DNA sequence: GCACATTTGGAGAGCGCTCTCCGATCGATC
DNA sequence: GATCGATCGGAGAGCGCTCTCCAAATGTGC
C-alpha cells in the first residue's frame, strides 16, 4: 500500500498552528490575523494577502472552542428529543429513530442548517435531571439554540427553556400553553379532510385508529375527526387508540373490526399504523378500498409502498422542520424576537386505499 | 397564565455563575472547586461538602467550552455523512435521511453514546473543500472522534482522517484499503445465502437487482451472488442496477422482466428496492412468490409491511452501529489502539416472498 | 522534640481566541 | 509646514476552566 503525504503542513511538533503561529509567519500581530480571518474592518489589502498566504502555508484552522469561549457562539444547534422515561437501552428510542418521522425532521433541519454552516447535535433527555442539566449546558452556550421534539404529553422542558432564555423552537405545539416558538400542522383540519373524504365516497360506518390521546397532535386529530363526523350526523364513532407503530395499528384494526363488523371506512392517525391496519384487514378477508376504505396520515414513504397505496393526509414535515430551523436561526440572531408559531395546512393525497 | 419561578438562582446580572463565584461562596479557591467537581485527589470531606453546597446554591454548571479548551476533550462524536457531490438543497440528502438506514444507524449509535454521556453531532460533507475543513476542525478538537458513513465509491475522507490522526470508525468498509477502523457486514455471504435460498426452493431462472456497482457493499453483494449462482451451474444471470430507492427498484424490475420474461426468482440488494420490485411484479400480473420469488436485503421495517412480507437477509445495522460507537470510544480512550474491523454475519429471515 | 515524608489547598500560568483601547501613520486642509 | 481627522496595526486583557508547581499543614518515627 502506498501512502502519499497529501497534507504538507508545517508541523510544530504535535501542536497545531495557532493564530500566533500564523502571525509570526506573516510578520504581523495576532489581532491582525484575527481581523483578516473574520473579515472585520478594512485591513490593508497587501497585508490581507500576506496573512491569507501565511494561513495557507501553516495550514491554520481556527479553533472553534477557543472562539466560542469568547464570542459565546458555537455554530451548533441541538436537536433535543425529550422523552418522559427512556432509559439507556430502551427499545423505544431505537424504534423512534427508525421511524421515518425522525429522518424527515433531520433532513428538513439539515437542508437549512447546512447552508448556514451550523451543525446539528443530537440530544436525548429522559429524566427531569437530564432536562435540568441540558438547560444548564444550553445556557452556558453549549449550543446556540435548540429544536425540540417533545414526546411526552406534558413536558416541563419547553417552559424550562423559555425561562432559561434559551432560543428554542418546537416541532409540534406544546401540550400546555408556553410562550415558545413552534411549528405545527393543523391536525384538526387534517382529520376533518380525512373524515369528509371517507363520508364523501359514501362510507356509512366509519371509525378511527388514533394515537395516544394525551399527545397534542393525536388529541387534535381525534377531536377534528369527532367534530366533523358529528356534523355529518354520526353521533358516535368507534375510536381505538394505538401508539403509532405498525403492530399497534394491526391490533387496533382487529379490535375495531370485532367491535363494529360492519365498518366500511377507517381514518388512521398515521401511515405506519395504517399499514398495520391493512394487514389486519387482509387477514380478515376484507378488500381495501371496496369493503373498507382507509385514509392514513403523514404521507410517509410507507404510504407509497403499502398495498394498496394509501390515500393519506400529507404532513409536510420536511418543510416544517426547515421552517423551524429558519425560525430558530432568526431567533438566535435577534434575541428580542417574540415567540411566534407557524401552522401548516395539510392536504389530502389520493391513492388507492380510499 | 402563571409563571412560577422554578429556578431560584443567585443571578449576577446576566452572567452565569462561574467557578470563581462558587469558590467565593464556598470560601475556597477556584482550584479546590475544580478538584471537587472533577473528583480529583482527596479533598477534605468537609470542604467537599461545603463546595457542593455552594454549587447548589449558585446553580453552577461547568462551561463545557472552557473545559474543552484546556482538556482537549469535547464529549462529542461527529457522525459524518460523506457524499461526493451534494449541494445545499440536494433532494438526495433528504431522501437519505428518510431512509430507514440512517435512523437505524443513529439509533444504534445513540444507544451506546448516551450511556457514555457523549453527544452526537451531525455533519455532511459534500466537497473536497468541506472534507478538508472537517478534518481541520476535527484535529482542532471540534469532536473527539468521528463515525463515518461514506456514500461515494471512492472517498478521500477515510485516508485524510487516518493521516490527520483523528479517531474514526467507518460503518461499511472503505472502497480502497485504508488502515481505519470499520464495522461491516459480510455482504458476500449475505448474497450467497439469498442465492442459495432461491435455488433451494427450486428457482431455475434467477436474476438480481443490485445497487450501484461502485459502492463496496453493493459490489460485494453482486460478486457473492455471481459466485454462488455460477457454482450452481448458472453461467450467466441477469443483473440490473438500481440506486437503493424504491422507484429505482420498480424500474429495475421492469427491465429485468423485459429482458428475461421467464424469471422465477430475484435477489434484490435492499428492501426498499424490493418493495418497488413487488409493485412492478404486481403490475405485470406476476404473483409473489408463486410466479416469482423475491429475497430482499436489510430486514428493514419495509420488509415487514410489504405485501407479501419480504423474505430478506438480515443486516444487524443497529448492533453494528453500536459496535462502531464502542470501538470509537475505545480508540478515543487509547490512541495507541490499532485499526481493527468487525464483520457481522448476515442471516436469512423467512417471510412470505420466497 | 526534631527531621522527615505525606497530604492538601492556593497562586498563577496558560488553552487559543476576540476585541477594546491606543498609539502610529497617513492624507488632506489651511 | 503645521494641524486635524481618519484609518490601521499592535498590545494586552480577558472568556472559564484545568493543572502544575509550592507552601502550609499534618502525620510519622526515632
UniProtKB/TrEMBL annotation, chains A, B:
<keyword id="KW-0238">DNA-binding</keyword>
<keyword id="KW-0804">Transcription</keyword>
<dbReference type="Pfam" id="PF00356">
    <property type="entry name" value="LacI"/>
</dbReference>
<dbReference type="InterPro" id="IPR046335">
    <property type="entry name" value="LacI/GalR-like_sensor"/>
</dbReference>
<feature type="domain" description="HTH cro/C1-type">
    <location>
        <begin position="18"/>
        <end position="47"/>
    </location>
</feature>
<dbReference type="Pfam" id="PF13377">
    <property type="entry name" value="Peripla_BP_3"/>
</dbReference>
<feature type="domain" description="HTH lacI-type">
    <location>
        <begin position="17"/>
        <end position="71"/>
    </location>
</feature>
<dbReference type="GO" id="GO:0000976">
    <property type="term" value="F:transcription cis-regulatory region binding"/>
</dbReference>
<dbReference type="GO" id="GO:0003700">
    <property type="term" value="F:DNA-binding transcription factor activity"/>
</dbReference>
<protein>
    <submittedName>
        <fullName>LacI family transcriptional regulator</fullName>
    </submittedName>
</protein>
<dbReference type="InterPro" id="IPR028082">
    <property type="entry name" value="Peripla_BP_I"/>
</dbReference>
<dbReference type="InterPro" id="IPR010982">
    <property type="entry name" value="Lambda_DNA-bd_dom_sf"/>
</dbReference>
<keyword id="KW-0805">Transcription regulation</keyword>
<dbReference type="InterPro" id="IPR001387">
    <property type="entry name" value="Cro/C1-type_HTH"/>
</dbReference>
<dbReference type="InterPro" id="IPR000843">
    <property type="entry name" value="HTH_LacI"/>
</dbReference>
Amino acid at each position: 500500500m502506498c501512502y502519499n503525504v497529501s497534507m504538507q503542513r508545517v508541523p510544530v511538533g504535535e501542536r497545531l498552528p495557532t493564530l500566533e503561529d500564523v502571525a509570526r509567519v506573516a510578520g504581523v500581530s495576532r489581532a491582525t490575523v484575527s481581523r483578516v480571518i473574520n473579515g472585520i474592518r478594512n485591513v490593508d489589502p497587501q497585508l490581507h494577502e500576506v496573512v491569507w498566504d501565511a494561513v495557507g502555508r501553516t495550514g491554520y484552522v481556527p479553533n472553534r472552542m477557543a472562539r466560542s469561549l469568547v464570542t459565546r457562539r458555537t455554530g451548533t444547534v441541538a436537536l433535543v428529543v425529550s422523552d418522559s422515561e427512556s432509559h439507556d437501552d430502551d427499545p423505544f428510542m431505537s424504534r423512534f429513530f427508525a421511524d421515518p418521522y425522525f429522518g424527515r425532521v433531520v433532513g428538513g433541519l439539515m437542508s437549512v442548517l447546512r447552508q448556514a454552516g451550523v451543525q446539528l447535535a443530537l440530544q436525548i433527555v429522559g429524566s427531569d435531571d437530564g432536562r435540568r442539566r441540558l438547560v444548564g449546558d444550553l445556557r452556558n452556550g453549549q449550543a446556540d439554540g435548540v429544536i425540540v421534539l417533545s414526546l411526552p404529553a406534558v413536558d416541563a422542558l419547553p417552559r424550562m427553556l423559555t425561562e432559561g432564555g434559551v432560543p428554542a423552537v418546537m416541532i409540534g405545539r406544546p401540550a400546555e400553553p408556553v410562550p415558545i416558538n413552534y411549528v405545527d400542522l393543523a391536525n384538526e383540519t387534517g382529520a376533518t379532510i380525512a373524515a369528509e373524504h371517507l363520508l364523501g365516497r359514501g362510507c356509512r360506518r366509519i371509525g378511527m385508529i388514533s394515537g395516544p390521546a394525551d399527545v397534542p397532535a393525536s388529541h387534535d386529530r381525534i377531536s377534528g375527526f369527532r367534530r366533523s363526523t358529528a356534523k355529518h350526523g354520526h353521533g358516535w364513532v368507534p375510536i381505538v387508540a394505538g401508539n403509532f407503530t405498525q403492530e399497534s395499528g394491526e391490533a387496533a384494526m382487529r379490535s375495531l373490526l370485532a367491535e363494529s363488523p360492519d365498518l366500511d371506512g377507517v381514518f388512521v392517525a398515521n401511515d405506519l399504523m395504517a399499514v398495520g391496519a391493512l394487514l389486519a384487514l387482509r387477514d380478515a378477508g376484507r378488500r381495501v378500498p371496496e369493503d373498507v376504505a382507509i385514509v392514513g396520515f403523514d404521507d410517509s414513504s410507507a404510504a407509497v409502498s403499502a398495498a394498496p397505496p394509501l390515500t393519506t393526509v400529507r404532513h409536510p414535515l420536511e418543510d416544517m422542520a426547515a421552517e423551524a430551523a429558519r425560525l430558530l436561526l432568526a431567533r438566535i440572531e435577534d434575541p428580542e424576537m417574540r415567540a411566534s408559531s407557524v401552522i401548516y395546512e395539510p392536504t389530502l393525497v389520493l391513492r388507492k386505499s380510499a
